[in-house]
Amino acid sequence: MDTAVNESLSISYNLEQFLIVLSVSLSIATLSKTVPILRRIPYTLLLVIVGMALAFVDVKLINLSPELIMEIFLPPLLFEAAWNLQWRNLKENWFPIILFATLGVVICVVGIAFPLSYWGGMELAIAFLAAAALSATDPVSVIALFKELGASKKLNTLMEGESLFNDGVAVVVFLILVGIPLGTSTFDLSTTLARFVTVIGIGVGCGLLIGFSLSLLTQRFDLPFVEQSLTLVSAYGAYILAENLGGSGVIGVVVVGMVLGNYGSRIGMNPRTRLIVSIFWEFVAFFVNSIIFLLIGDQIGLSSLSDHLNLILIAIAAVVVTRLVSVFGLSLISNKVSDQISSTHITLQEQTVLWWGGLRGSVAIAVALSVPQAIAERQAIIDIVFGVVLFTLLVQGLTTQFVLKGLDLIGDQPQRLEYAELVSRQIALRRVLAEIQKSDEFPDIDPERLRYKQELVQGQLQSVTDKLKLLLQEYPLLQEVANKKFDQTVLDIEAETYADLIRMGRLEENIMPLLVTLEGENVVE
Fold this sequence. Notes:
With 525 residues, the chain is mainly alpha-helical. The protein is 80% helix and 0% strand. It folds into three domains: 2-406, Na+/H+ antiporter like fold; 418-476; 479-525, no CATH class. It has 22 helices and no strands. Helix 1 (2-34) crosses helix 2 (43-56), helix 1 crosses helix 13 (271-299) and helix 5 (94-118) crosses helix 8. The relative contact order is 0.11. Belongs to the monovalent cation:proton antiporter 1 (CPA1) transporter (TC 2.A.36) family.
């Protein structure tokens, strides 16, 4: 009886704590969108600041464990990012992303470990563990800033693509290194490489298996909420399956998210379902980020950090320098071979933003907290990671928008986004109006209501059209965007017509749209 009562009290207490965390985090996130002075600060950084304030007055909300981050919070965050990462953009930028996520991690680990050992006096094996944790980038707030300010798709893809794959590689490197100070394993290059490839391969295999299986399954029915639920199951399922098979759960989630977002949602979901699922994952990402960044700030023990201040300062300097070396050095390599295997050329301005925007966050903290208790320097590693995370979030995170503006990387992107939204609304309203005007399709609707609805849509359409005209007058360069969208729309119509003819059996194979050829001839002329 007493056990049941204790369990009931424990559940009640944990629920109360969770509701407090949720209330505080969502309140801060709301204020960041409504209070003008707070809009300049990304809400994730504001949550860290509030969490630090709570920690300063010794208010502990929930203990942040590695299991809580890696198994509960991380899968949905990774899946949401991978779901929205378009394969077309990734294919255009795959080479630098792979370089940053692999060689970049190696440069980071080596470049941080040796300064910590040489100047900080840490045992080299321990320094490598701290470096492995710090090699995981987590630029959530920077990517949110990119979207808010309208930074280029290329910059967003490079930052987000690197982060997704970088996290998986960093976790694998840590798991390989953690056995060395414990004496359970030794470093052997060939064995380590074989294990690395195996762990990554299992993660990729699990992601592909679940992703393509669900893609084929959702072709057989049209049940939006079931399909939405299946994506949630796939995120956690890929992580758990890969981990249980000895692979990388992080890589598994990233792969399944990319497969479902780029393939499964196209062949197995109608447009309405895709929209429902995308909105659901946008909410989940907002919900999880709102909690995790508050807890990051709340877990920071300022007195403990001061005990290892010299190590933290060394680590901060090493993180900044190694990030600079990896971004500028690997970008140079990428640009050299871009003509042969990749169309991406990373400018010096973009390299600067990639360098300064390489923040550390939840993944680095989760890895640090997972250091075994048997390692005596565990607290030092945790303090180093928390200190660096704090610096990158509050210093680099808060100044990235000034770097973007100073390097003129925003340009007319906000206006382009506004133009694209207005054009989309114009197209949608015209289609709605066309359907309403087919009065024979709505025989049971009162004519007066049809007339009212028609006038309402016409008014909205006129308002959108007027805004488009004003935008084009204010920003004449958008006319080029309008011309490109028109050309693309015409090409899409021709290509879709050929596809329909193939499905009807009136055309044996797909043919090149004629307008593509004509466009090419015009360019030549």
